[in-house]
């Protein structure tokens, strides 16, 4: 899933301080699961804003809304919902960065008589897994040319600090990465896993290069499925 | 110090603090009358939003007993 | 304990929004500790007196008075 953290309250407050009608808009998918932008977080942020502004004698209206996914038109197309969007001075989206951008794009595409201001309430962090209760770790960088079949299912791009294709580097010690002693050395994990699988042979050939054009280095990417297009 | 009648809300767990409050009642132990009790089956169920909403509703202080 | 941790976190939020973390507290009180709960109730009432009214409530009252005028 995509993980995110809420921005510091002070920063959020500053970014909405000039508006009287604020809509806090949550997203029920990734950010709900990582407890940054789901229903509970919408309620909490809205209540915090009311209390904080109210305290300063600043009367603001804070409404609370939630959609299944902000990265998809279909979940935001409800006319009654769009009417509420139009009434707000600012939409404080607590979806990931994709959701914020898509909601902004969608609202301004469908609501033509008024420009809609959408701002983020989260810092989007990474694509990762829920390792334990309250713990998430980065697992994939979306490099567009997956190498997991060679590395025993452990990603050297996302999990090795240097994204080495041939590892480990000289800094690997006692299974930990030199960048940060808390961090497992991905290449140590890879070798242990391959050893257990009896597949060590797989990493013997030197990986000369990887096609990074498929990654972000080739500029923003697009995915087209012609068969699905109308 | 401001002279006023504070509104204090107590969020109490059925199995510990609420029973204690009950007992205090039975034993006629005096406690301030401006404390309003909210009963929970377990204080693990006290959500952040309950606390924030209670302040929005005008509480001056809240204590959670479990 | 989950409740205690959550209260700790909520105290931080209360500081951020200007309500103040002192207005919230968690206490361990066993079922048999009737005097302790009375003590706690007294303590929190005293604390609320010292802190003064919830600023948000005061603001709201002022605002609604203004609205009526
Ligand atoms: S190799 Fe690329 S696609 Fe595969 S897990 Fe790593 S970053 Fe993701
Ligand atoms: S110690 Fe391991 S994970 Fe860290 S940079 Fe070197 S090879 Fe990569």
Please tell me the total number of domains of chain B: 1
| Cα shape of chain B | flat
Summarize the main sheet of chain B. 3 strands, parallel
Number of distinct beta strands of chain A? 9
What gross morphology of chain A would you assign?
elongated
Mean pLDDT of chain B: 91
Strand content of chain B: 25-35%
Radius of gyration of chain A: 22 Å
**Helix/strand order of chain A:** EHEHHEHEHEEEHEEH
- How many runs of DSSP E, i.e. beta strands of chain B? 3
Classification by helices and strands of chain A: alpha/beta
Radius of gyration of chain B: 13 Å
The chain-level structural class of chain B is alpha/beta
Distance between the termini of chain B: 29 Å
**Mean pLDDT, all residues of chain A:** 96
CATH topology of the largest domain in chain A: Rossmann fold
Strand order of the largest sheet of chain B: 2-1-3
The tally of structural domains of chain A comes to 2
Layout of secondary structure:
The complex is a heterotrimer of chains A (230), B (66) and C (69).
Chain A: E1 2-6, H1 9-16, E2 21-27, H2 30-33, H3 39-55, E3 61-67, H4 79-87, E4 90-93, H5 97-110, E5 118-120, E6 122-132, E7 135-140, H6 156-159, E8 176-177, E9 180-184, H7 186-197
Parallel strand pairs in A: 2-3, 2-4, 4-5
Antiparallel strand pairs in A: 1-6, 6-7, 8-9
Chain B: E1 8-13, H1 17-26, E2 35-40, H2 48-56, E3 61-65
Parallel strand pairs in B: 1-2, 1-3
Chain C: H1 2-16, E1 24-27, H2 34-51, H3 55-68
The complex binds iron/sulfur cluster (2 copies).
């Amino acid at each position: 899933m995509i993980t995110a953290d809420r921005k510091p309250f002070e920063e959020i407050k500053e970014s909405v301080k000039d508006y009287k009608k604020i809509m806090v808009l949550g997203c029920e998918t990734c950010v709900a699961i990582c407890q940054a932008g789901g229903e509970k977080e919408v309620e909490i942020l809205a209540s915090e804003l009311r209390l904080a502004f109210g305290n300063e004698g600043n009367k603001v209206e804070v409404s609370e809304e939630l959609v299944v996914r902000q990265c998809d038109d279909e979940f935001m197309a409800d006319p009654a919902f769009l009417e509420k969007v139009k009434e707000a001075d600012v939409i404080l989206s607590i979806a990931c960065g994709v959701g914020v951008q898509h909601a902004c794009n969608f609202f301004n595409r469908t609501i033509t008589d008024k420009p809609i201001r959408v701002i983020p309430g989260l810092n989007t962090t990474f694509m990762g897994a829920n390792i334990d209760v309250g713990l998430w770790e980065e697992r994939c960088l979306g490099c567009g040319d997956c190498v997991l079949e060679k590395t025993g299912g452990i990603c050297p791009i996302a999990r090795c600090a240097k994204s080495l294709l041939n590892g480990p580097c000289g800094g690997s010690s006692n299974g930990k990465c030199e960048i940060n002693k808390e961090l497992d050395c991905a290449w140590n994990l890879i070798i242990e896993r391959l050893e257990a699988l009896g597949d060590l042979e797989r990493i013997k050939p030197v990986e000369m290069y990887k096609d990074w054009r498929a990654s972000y280095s080739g500029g923003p990417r697009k995915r087209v499925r012609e068969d699905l297009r109308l | 110090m401001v002279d006023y009648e504070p509104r204090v809300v107590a969020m109490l767990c059925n199995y510990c603090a609420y029973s204690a409050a009950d007992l205090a009642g039975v034993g006629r132990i005096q406690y301030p009358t401006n404390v309003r009790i909210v009963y929970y089956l377990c204080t693990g169920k006290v959500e952040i939003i309950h606390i924030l909403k209670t302040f929005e509703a005008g509480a001056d202080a809240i204590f959670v007993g479990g | 304990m989950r409740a205690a941790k959550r209260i700790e976190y909520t105290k931080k939020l209360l500081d951020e929004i200007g309500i103040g973390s002192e207005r919230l507290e968690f206490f361990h009180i066993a079922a048999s500790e009737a005097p302790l709960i009375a003590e706690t109730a007294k303590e929190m009432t005293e604390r609320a007196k010292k802190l003064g009214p919830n600023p948000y409530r005061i603001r709201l009252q002022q605002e609604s008075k203004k609205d009526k005028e």
